[in-house]
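Protein modeling request. Please complete all fields; requests missing the sequence field cannot be processed.
Requester role: graduate student
Desired output: 3D structure, token encoding
Chains: 1
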Amino acid sequence: MCFVCFVVRPKKFNDRPFPYHHELELAVESLTNLGAGVARVRLDAEPALGGPALRSLATQGEGWVVFVPFALPGERVRARIFRNHANYSEADLIEVVTPSPQRVAPCCPLFGACGGCQYQNLAYPAQLEWKRRHVAELLQRLARIEAPVNPVIPSPREFGYRSKLTPHFSAPRRGKINPAVPGGARETISPGSAAASGAPATTARMPPIGFLRAGSRFDLVDVPQCPIATPGINATLEEVRADVHARMSHGQYVLGATILLREAREGVVTDPGAEITEEVEGVALTFLARDFFQNNPFILPAFTRHVREQASAGGARFLVDAYCGSGLFALTAARAFEAVAGVEVSPTAVQRATANAAANGIANARFVAGDAAAIFAGLEFAPRDTAVVIDPPRKGCDAPFLQQLIEFGPARIVYVSCDPATQMRDLSILAPGGYAIETVQPFDLFPQTRHLECVITLARTHGFPD
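Delivered output (466 residues):
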């Protein structure tokens, strides 16, 4: 099995401990939580050479670390160094000499080039086990907590599950391809609307419409179809690509753009401002197509059911959803509580959540726009009878929020996170604040990728605020 390198030689290359494009044969020990294979190389000092001699010998638990994307644990591989850091190196996978028994053929011809998936070459049961291990490792390393981690709840669909896709493109301009420059002008578009220029473009080829190339921050890979997206999205993607290419040929784009495709009850929507409805456990949730909403609808019923059961397990009568958005957790959990309060700093999200409660006939839920400096102010729920659900953005909770949560002192906290690393960081603050872990339950909302959701239930260990 041979692989192609995509990394361009940097202008300045640190050649210690390896020269540029030095090739090694490595034994891969494990995976990082970013999906790269981990190998180790022993560096033996030989002063005659002016530095360490390099041996292509993997060593268990010692030696210089080399990360090799798309290499799997248990494999022997040939790899080519492209970057040296202070305490590890990165290498391209050149050849799998001895494959893992868990290696499978990826179904996507772009796997390894497109940066969207990391695990299409790994059997699905093994993906789940490695994700469980990563949660356990982060829990020990970042939170300094020893706790069992439950097996990952699998997605009902391994492919064809993603209900939102956002391909990008850079537009032709004056006969050249515009690079996707970070911080540069970009827009979200829908077919039929575009920024028009006064002069036609003169390009010999169309720019790619797709996603970032693996290992690159700027280069895009053309993606005609995406196997993790729903069939409906792939059918619409074909139409949208044809429309964009036609407009490009007439010079109608002067800026790079992001295309939005979202599938819901109404079908596939491409207008970012369109209202769409997703149904979860019999609750219809309406929101804007551009809004955040979990994009694996097939696992959502099990996901929300677990959150509800964990929040109510200790006998709490009241629920606070502290990052309520359009009401996903608050409204699917309302049946298990006397009263529910959703808190959001976004007034428009509060309006949508309130309208969703009314549309579903849920009378025991109310939503308020909370001040970030006093998120729990005005709540009439007794802390000893209250559970709090938090589902923060990828960056996790900020310190003022965590302090307010500790001071409020609910009986239970159900912490939902799409980034276990920031979740574990926050646990290191919550644990000394009087909370202990009851359950750690990962969910695989994103098969074939390194991403997952983790739900951790915490119970108060002592006393309640007056």
